[in-house]
Amino acid sequence: MKKLSARRRHPLAALVVLLLALACTGGLYAVFAPADKAQADETAQSLAIEEGKKLYAVGCASCHGTGGQGTTDGPSLVGVGAAAVDFQVGTGRMPAQQPGAQVPRKKVIYSQAEIDQLAAYVASLGAGPAVPSEEKYGPEGADIAKGGELFRTNCAQCHNFTGKGGALTHGKYAPTLEDVDPKHIYQAMQTGPQNMPSFPDTTLSEQNKKDIIAYLNAVNGEETESPGGLSLGGLGPVTEGLFGWIFGLGACIAVAVWVAARTAKAKKS
Amino acid sequence: MSTTANTDSRSRGKAPAGERVADWADGRLGIYSLAKANMRKIFPDHWSFMLGEICLYSFIIIILTGVYLTLFFHPSMNEVEYHGSYVPMQGQLMSEAYKSTLDISFDVRGGLLIRQIHHWAAIIFLAGMFVHMMRVFFTGAFRKPREINWLFGFLLFVLGMFTGFTGYSLPDDLLSGTGVRFTQGAILSVPIVGTYISMFLFGGEFPGDDFVARFYSIHILLLPGIMLGLVVGHLILVFYHKHTQFAGPGRTNKNVVGMPLLPVYMAKAGGFFFLVFGVIALVAGIATVNPIWALGPYRADQVSTGAQPDWYMGFAEGLVRAMPGWEINLWGHTLVLGVFIPLVIFGLFLALIAVYPFIESWVTGDKREHHILDRPRNAPTRTAFGVAWITAYMIMLIGGGNDIVATHFHLSINAVTWFVRIGFFAGPVIAFIVTKRICLGLQRRDKDKVLHGRESGIIKRLPHGEFIEVHEPLSQEHMYTLTAHEQYKPAEIGPTVDENGVERKAKSSEKLRAKLSNAYYGEGNQIPKPTVEEYREITSGHGHH
Predict the structure, then answer these.
(1) Range of the domain at A173
(2) ipTM score assigned to the predicted complex
(3) How many residue pairs from chains A and B have C-beta atoms closer than 8 A?
(4) CATH code of residue A180
(5) Residues B95-135: pLDDT tens digits?
(6) Contact at 8 Å (CB) between B161 and B98?
(7) H or E segment to which residue B248 belongs
(8) What DSSP string describes B501-518?
(9) Read out DSSP for B268-326?
(10) Dmax over Cα atoms in chain B, in whole Å?
(11) Does A184 map to a domain?
(12) Residue A152: closest C-alpha in chain B
């Protein structure tokens, strides 16, 4: 201490103190100042909302109302969340082509960037489920067999055993789950689009959803093998019966006609 | 006799081994006389006479593959955890029946192929019986003396339906379990006894842990045993009655024109067995049937959409799906008409086709034997009835698959159901009228062909400018074939006054019969076939055009 006090009149002492003070303030500023990046994010977010609002005004407002409040032609979008937008627009269901029993899946007409902007705008109207990150619906850590059990308990009554789809009343239907992006399946469970009930995390936990997606991928995915040969649509006895009648019995009868035509008598004449 | 044969063979040296074996067997079984009587049995040639063979062979294939399956199937509902080679079922709890079916499909050598052959053969067996039965129906082959054989065949079809149903239920998968639940619902809908039968059948509340074992003995022992007996009886009667044949020159009610059983038909039938086996094995190798691994084990709290029975139970499913859900509550008891009425119609509808031969013979009053087949057009009312029956059946099949029809043709399931409801009543009527018109049209055409010959397509110009089409007269054989059928006269109510002049009241059954008979054979319900006089007059040159 003595050493330090002895040198306090050193000509360079002022410089050292200044440097220390600068380092301190700089450090404190770095720690306490509002993050630059976050600020940039916020601007991007508000920009996305801004852009989304414009897209919304062109493509969605005629049915869902100018502020997403809903009209007689379309439900309110307040609180549906980004996941609902990502699902509906990302599968081409929205914007709807025409009113009807159910809006079908069709060609997607917005780019993913535009969909994100729309989602940001709709999410800004009220809190709702966000677009899930990839680890939520990815195959890692999923229990396929458990997913199958959950699927048969919660989904099969409308979507069939392996998700081939089924009929609902008055022209409505549960669509096939073949070639559906796992993200969209996750979002559908979260948000319950159209005639589907929603399965929030309190009903089906995140792990449950992951299991179900993994099961679907195992039994109705692109790389699913069909050990018995042609799957005949996976629709059960109706197509099997049709196939049995036409190709099974049909072939047997064709053979019978062939055998009957080839007799000793036929050779003689 | 054997001693003489022995001395004979000794004097000529040793007889060939085949002959000695045959001799040995004849001395004990009497096969020579049996063979002598039956080896030269004649069978007429027509592809439609081989439909029954398709059924017989697929039945044999079902038995053969079924025996293989019993070696690996465990008819038990004990709960076990799965650790076989099918990944999406790992660690799932399931009944031993379902697990052993998974094992047959994935771990038993050839198991899946045999399972698929068994199931496809069952589908084809039932379809074959349906078509065979319709062939017999439309050609009138059920007439005396074959009514009993018709009933045997009908019973085989019905028993086949239930054998198929019990077999389909054995794997205890989610689809078949739903079907068993459906059946239990139908049983419960029967007034008074329904609950008792259900409790008895399932050993308590559904599903219990008994039904797989019970269905197993019904499926592999009871029903196939009865069916095997009926098949043998069916074949013995075919031999005894001799086969029917279509009309033609040289063919009468007293002979059969065709090829002998040995060697021609034995070779053909034997070859045909392998062809049918080949077709079924090919189908089983190409297409999946009942992929139980994708369906999951049965649990009473789970269900899937698109749950249908195999096709032969489809019309029963359709009846229930089309029926409005009516029910009556009386003194604390519920009468579920929405299920009970379809159950009753199911029985009556099948019985209708079974008793038809007896109705027809009562209407015609014909007690003679018939070995010559009718062409469907020459029995318009019968043909129209058959087509009406098939129409109702097919409409109910559509009803059974109403959800699949709705999703794949982009229709509303309610619209499909209403179509089925209306179609079940209107369809048969329309089909009846249309078929009858078509038959009468074809009869007229036959008459024209006999009287005026075949249209040759050659246009001739006469010297005075008139154009005529040249008609070529038919050959004698062809004309015989077209006119060989006999035509009934409508029955009349006998004299209402007896020989003493006392008035007699015609019984209502007599009146009904006369009415029906008129509908069958009255004016406008059949075209009188050309007579010799008509033919002579036209061919003599007068009035020929």
Answers:
(1) 134-220
(2) 0.89
(3) 217
(4) 1.10.760.10
(5) 999 999 999 999 999 999 999 999 999 999 999 999 999 99
(6) no
(7) none
(8) S-B-PPPHHHHHHHHHHH
(9) HHHHHHHHHHHHHHHHHHHB----HHHH-B--TT---SS----GGGHHHHHHHHHS---
(10) 95
(11) yes
(12) B302
